[in-house]
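Annex B. Sample input.
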Amino acid sequence: MNSEGVQALVRNQDSDFKIASTTLLRIARNILENVKEDKFRSIRIDSKAFQDKILPFDGAVQCLLEMGFQEDGDKFTLFTGTSLADLKEILKQIKSATNLKLAKTFSAE
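Annex B, continued. Sample output.
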């Protein structure tokens, strides 16, 4: 699966990509490291972190949806019982995109 969200995320300026990708990676890792903890499976839309580190950047919300999150009133939730396969795939693609961006940055210097 080629993630449209990750493709859009990569088109952000490098500093914006770093903010959004770091946040998405942290969300995914927290879920994978704490599978049974519901508190890591939802993100309030009105939270400062969501407003500052996800919402402003192209592709970031799409990545959440592709991970398996669903809009759930005032938050995005990855419901218990949802397969983590998509989350793992998007995590892998964000890591790969991060490495490619780093490589391009160093080769341009």
